[in-house]
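This section describes the prediction task in plain terms. A model, or a person checking by hand, is given the sequence of a single protein chain and must write out its three-dimensional structure as a string of tokens. No templates, partner chains or ligands are provided. The sample shown here is typical of the held-out split.
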Amino acid sequence: MELIVFDLDGTLLDRKSQVSAHTRDTLQQLHRRGIAYTVATGRTLHSARDLLLGHRFTLPQIYKNGVMIWLPQSDSFSHRNLLTNPEICQVVEAFMRAAVTPFIFTLESGNQHVVYHPPLQNAAERRLSTLFAQERGMALLPIEELPAQADIINISALGPRTAIDSVEQLVQGEDHLVAYAGAALEGDSLYWIDVHHSAASKGNAIATLKQDLGFTKVICFGDSENDLSMFAMADESYAPRNAKEALQAKATAVIGHHNEDGISRFLRDRFNL
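The expected answer:
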């Protein structure tokens, strides 16, 4: 049995962060053929749920780069690699020294996400907070209200490259943390960073699904450094033409651009849809 695993942004989704008509039809054909597929994304469940609605994503889904595995059938998380307040103190302090506002994502009662943050410092951070609140439906609260025993999913931030680099270097010295960073959509002058538990990775989460669900082969698609772990464990791994060079170098093959339905066109050829 084969399991197809999709990254979302820059891979399955187009440049508008949507599932195109061509991709939607391809997913329907995969479902009719009984070909299993799921997602492994850096997004939270709440920011991906509406995108996946109606596209037959019925199998367990991997969120926040492997921090959590979501079970759609039972509306619950089966695996969670969360952080605690003491584990993130140095990172939060490093963000503050670098004049960058950290956004702390938590998992709270009812499987709800809440984002806590210090005062916003610039227009880019205000746009990011608006994105979280309006487009992704998350509650935003002052960092002073962060519960002492909070279950922390990750810390995200947006800022100048030098500031983001300084935090990333600190994280590299923390055994329990891992960070991914890169150029932001807002422009080359801004970089993003996402910090979470080092036990979490897309590769580890996919290996769990493979064992739990009895799949014998994994075929994955991704475009960025946070996809390297799933490329390493997959039987076949494909990078769209827009993928980072590190991914293209590790891929079984480089296929079409994500904004030109590269993944769905490849799947139609691969499975004779």
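For orientation: The radius of gyration is 18 Å.
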